[in-house]
Design goal:
With 300 residues, the protein is α/β, with parallel strands linked by helices. The protein is built from eight helices and 15 strands. It has two domains: 2-113 and 249-299, Medium-chain alcohol dehydrogenases, catalytic domain (Quinone Oxidoreductase, Chain A, domain 1, Alpha-Beta Complex); 125-241, NAD(P)-binding Rossmann-like Domain (Rossmann fold, 3-Layer(aba) Sandwich). It has helices at residues 37-45, 105-109, 112-123, 141-152, 166-171, 198-204, 251-263, 280-288, and strands at residues 2-7, 10-15, 25-34, 55-62, 75-79, 88-92, 96-98, 132-135, 156-160, 176-178, 188-193, 207-215, 238-241, 271-276, 295-299. The strands form three sheets. Strands 3, 4, 5, 6, 7, 14 and 15 form a seven-stranded mixed beta sheet that branches. It has a six-stranded parallel beta sheet with strand order 10-9-8-11-12-13, with helices on both faces. The protein binds NADP nicotinamide-adenine-dinucleotide phosphate.
Length: 300
């Protein structure tokens, strides 16, 4: 089979050994995959024939020998740890969900890491009915899912994003779109913050007492100086980090929830880039330089 392999000369499509599934793994013919910002750092660090790839969608060619998971021929989406950017992947059945006819493979491939991260960070905010929620990095792969899932949960959402994204973000449910956190004056019950630096500090300054601030990423790479005096007027605010690799929520169930939302058109996916997998370098450059909004998907 062919697989994308990361070498000292960059990513190359090479012949690789076919995976041999364990009893609880299904063999999946991968048809599409998506790229995530965290993979940019992993690709820079792991150049010794590393096989990347977490978000995949495809067709089961060999069901798991232990009888778990879908039958041969089922269309599936999965979140794997690595090696997913390949023609074949061995996938633990606990990490995949079956796709109904209404969901395209390309759309499904955009879901796993970004949408599950959004789902479980929104859940950290508890009951959001009628609450104010602030989301930074709202045009990103995770951000667009955060906006939609917070709205579905009954929240009133403020999205922080560049002005040209306002029409799109309002269409997917944001009540207010602002270019910086400093332009808001609400008191937020939940903040989901992924940019870092002054933006995180400004967001803490707009929390209601007892609010939750989920720290998800530092896309700007800027450090945030915070001390106890930043919490005067914001007493009881809790800062919580989210790390997808440590998330104990069942992946198959989470993907099932997201697939159902997609199938029933309550969740939509913005494919900012969709191309053949030979265009992987262009997709990664676009992600690195933020030349598209939403998710990038590559097809095999
Ligand atoms: N902890 C976890 O488990 C986990 C899981 C997934 C992702 N993450 C992290 O979460 C972050 C978002 O991921 P993603 O996949 O959504 O990335 P993405 O698609 O690249 O989106 C990045 C978002 O941040 C905005 N942004 C970037 N630099 C900015 C800056 N200097 N100032 C203001 N806004 C800026 C972008 O706005 P523009 O549209 O204007 O460029 C975009 O909305 C990343 O840091 C990623 O590593 C963490």
């Amino acid at each position: 089979m062919k697989a994308l392999v990361n070498t000292a000369d960059g990513l190359v499509i090479k012949t690789a050994a076919e995976p041999i599934p364990t009893a609880s793994q299904a063999l999946v013919a991968v048809r599409a995959f998506s790229v995530n910002r965290g993979e940019l750092a992993l690709l820079a660090a792991r150049t010794q024939d590393w096989r990347p790839g977490q978000d995949i969608a495809g067709v089961v060619v060999e069901p798991a020998a232990d009888g778990s998971g879908p039958a041969a021929g089922a269309r599936v989406v999965a979140l794997v740890e690595d090696s997913g950017w390949a023609e074949l992947a061995a996938v633990p059945t606990a990490r995949l969900a079956e796709l109904p006819d209404e969901v395209d493979i390309e759309q499904a491939a955009a879901l796993p890491l970004a949408a599950r991260t959004a789902l479980n960070t929104i859940r950290l905010g508890g009951n959001l009915v009628g609450r104010e929620v602030l989301i930074t990095g709202a045009t990103g792969g995770v951000g667009e899912f955060l906006v939609q899932l917070a709205v579905l949960s009954g929240a009133r959402v403020t999205a922080v994003a560049r002005p040209e994204a306002e029409t799109h973000l309002r269409r997917i449910g944001a009540s207010l779109v602002v270019p910086t956190v400093a332009d808001t004056n609400s008191q937020y019950h939940l903040v989901v913050e992924s940019v870092g630096g002054q933006i995180l500090r400004d967001a803490i300054a707009r929390t209601a007492p007892g609010a939750t601030v989920v720290v998800l990423g530092t896309t700007s790479r800027e450090k945030t100086p915070v001390d106890v005096y930043d919490f005067i007027g914001h007493e009881g605010v809790r800062l919580v980090n989210y790390m997808s690799y440590a998330d104990s929520s069942p992946i198959d169930a989470d993907l099932g929830v997201l697939v159902e939302l997609l199938a029933s058109k309550r969740l939509e996916i913005n494919l900012g880039l969709c191309a053949d997998w030979t265009q992987i370098d262009d997709a990664l450059d676009g992600l690195r330089n933020r030349t598209f909004h939403g998710k990038a998907v590559l097809t095999i």
